[in-house]
Design brief:
- The complex is a heterodimer of chains A (about 375) and B (about 90).
- Helices cover about 30% and strands about 25% of the residues of chain A.
- Chain A is an alpha/beta fold.
- Chain A folds into 2 domains: about 170 residues, FAD/NAD(P)-binding domain (3-Layer(bba) Sandwich); about 150 residues, D-Amino Acid Oxidase, subunit A, domain 2 (D-Amino Acid Oxidase, Chain A, domain 2, 2-Layer Sandwich).
- In chain A, the strands form 4 sheets. Chain A has an 8-stranded mixed β-sheet, sandwiched between helices. In chain A, strands 8-2-1-12-19-18 form a 6-stranded mixed β-sheet. In chain A, strands 9-10-11 form a 3-stranded antiparallel β-sheet, with no helix packed on it.
- In chain A, helix 1 packs parallel to helix 7 and helix 1 runs parallel beside helix 10.
- In chain A, about 50% of the residues are buried.
- By secondary structure, chain B is mainly alpha-helical.
- In chain B, a hairpin with a 4-residue loop joins strand 1 and strand 2.
- Chain B is elongated.
- The chains are: A alpha/beta (about 375), B mainly alpha (about 90).
Chain lengths: ~375, ~90
């Protein structure tokens, strides 16, 4: 491991690795420190979806710009990340949801996104296995350019490309302390040695809060355990990701043919437990077979848990904190860190490599929680 | 061409495992995520012991010290219909 770097990134998830790649491309000397292995946290447990249909302008525009990057990412990184655009179908169940959907669609269209409100009879044209009556839908929004990619392959591809540009990526390495001098970051101490640096990026997922505490910075993050399941492989049945804000369900068919999906467990509270529950399996199977009754004949194979690192407004914390020079946040993704990672890493690269901030970065700074009016993201599932 | 299958569910051969180890994926969890071993209907019953042996040969780590992936329910495939009907019977 190097003992000196321009930037040390803590966390080898998709955001840490994509940032390592983009900073290395700018010629910076980057070290990544990951406690376990690459994509071992939220990235590796996520539902693989890439959605542009958000209720806040920041999330929507971050996602739209990220999709533009995803579209050419396999080519840029030289590895197939399995990006596919089958669209996202968001079920609308009542008049209130319809009003919010109309508002969202107007905002999303103003950003140039192709998105439509579908009447019930068009839902099965997009996803034939759905039972519109069973899922109690009065309509849906559909954006054909939303999609999926493989989170492991994306993270590994970013990491390999970063290594080829000289980044030093260390797995199974734990940060034990951060050295601060005169209100500035000075060094990162790990169990494998100390790295001198002026810039530390905190991309440690649910451990970001503990890391920030080491230097007396308080992050408003709560870990929420989420459960997710995968079925056996099937012939291609549908291309879109189906989601519902009311039922909290999301599911899609992956490239290999398995259906992957999840929904929140009703009685779940914040915390760090990781054991999957039978209550989830029951609830998931009941809701999924209500949406798509034909799936009752399909076998469930696997079931695992992951964490959302949730902020009070369900939007990420990005950029340098006021309290400590060189301490950059890249966390609090609240369940949608994978899909916006390409753009997040570009914005942070501009900030770190060129000292250039942007309107989006400023609006997502930790400082926003010190004011009173926060604009909460409403379009959250899982 | 001779090809020794390690994982029948995902059609992964010994050569696939060896080249992934060469690329730097040196623990079972990493290999699982790279190659999808242990993610199929057998849930790793066929492949994981074999992969642990290959890892031992290649890296010198003893099989007994190689941590296996977490075992989670269900142990065998269960249909969604069966799981969905669970509550109604209570």
């Amino acid at each position: 491991m190097k003992n000196k770097a321009d930037v040390v990134i803590i966390g080898g998830g998709v955001n840490g690795c994509s940032l390592a790649y983009n900073l290395s491309k700018k010629g910076l000397d980057v070290v990544v420190v990951e406690k376990k292995y690459l994509a071992s946290g939220a990235t590796g447990a996520c539902g693989a979806g890439i959605r542009q249909q958000w209720s806040t302008k920041e999330n929507a525009s971050l996602a739209i710009q990220s999709v533009k990057i995803f579209e050419q990412l396999s080519c840029e990184l030289g590895q197939d990340i399995e990006f596919r655009q089958g669209g996202y179908l968001i079920a609308i169940h009542d008049e209130n949801e319809m009003k919010q959907a109309e508002k969202n669609v107007t905002m999303q269209r103003s950003l140039g996104l192709r998105v439509d409100i579908l009447p019930p009879e068009r839902i099965t044209q997009v996803v034939p296995i759905l039972d519109v009556t069973g899922m109690k839908a009065i309509g849906a929004t559909f954006c054909p350019t939303d999609g999926h990619a493989n989170p492991f392959k994306t993270t590994f591809a970013y990491a390999d490309a970063a290594r080829n540009l000289g980044a030093d990526i260390n797995t199974h390495t734990t940060v034990v302390g951060l050295k601060v001098q005169k209100k500035s970051i000075h060094a990162v101490m790990t169990d494998k040695g100390t790295i001198q640096t002026d810039v530390v990026v905190n991309a440690a997922g649910i451990d970001s809060k503990t890391l920030a505490k080491m230097v007396h910075v308080t992050l408003p993050l709560t870990p929420f355990r989420k459960e997710i399941m995968a079925t056996e492989r099937l012939q291609p049945l549908f291309e879109a990701m189906v989601i519902s804000f009311k039922d909290g369900i999301y599911f899609s068919q992956q490239k290999e043919g398995q259906i992957v999906g999840g929904l929140p467990i009703p009685e779940e509270k914040g915390g760090y437990r990781t054991m999957p529950t039978f209550a989830f399996l029951e609830h998931m199977a009941q809701t999924l077979t209500m949406y798509a009754p034909v799936l009752k004949h399909v076998n469930l194979l696997r079931h695992w848990t992951g964490f959302y690192d949730v902020t009070p407004d369900a939007r990420p914390i990005l950029g340098e904190v006021k309290e400590l020079n060189g301490f950059v946040q890249c966390n609090g993704f609240s369940g949608h860190g994978f899909m916006i990672s390409p753009m997040v890493s570009q914005l942070l690269t501009k900030l770190i490599a060129e000292g250039k901030t942007s309107e989006v970065l400023e609006s997502l700074n930790l400082e926003r929680f010190k004011g009173k009016n926060i604009d909460k993201e409403l379009s959250v599932v899982g | 061409m001779k090809r020794s299958i390690v994982c029948r569910c995902e059609d992964i051969s010994e050569e696939d495992v060896l080249s992934a180890i060469d690329e730097g994926y040196t623990d079972i969890e990493e290999l699982r995520k790279k190659l999808r071993i242990g993610m199929g209907p057998c849930q790793g019953r066929v492949c994981l012991q074999l992969v642990a042996r290959i890892l031992e040969k290649k890296t010198g780590k003893k099989v007994a010290t190689i941590p296996l992936p977490t075992v989670r329910p269900p142990l065998v495939p269960v249909s969604l219909g069966t799981l969905a009907s669970e509550k109604d019977e209570k």
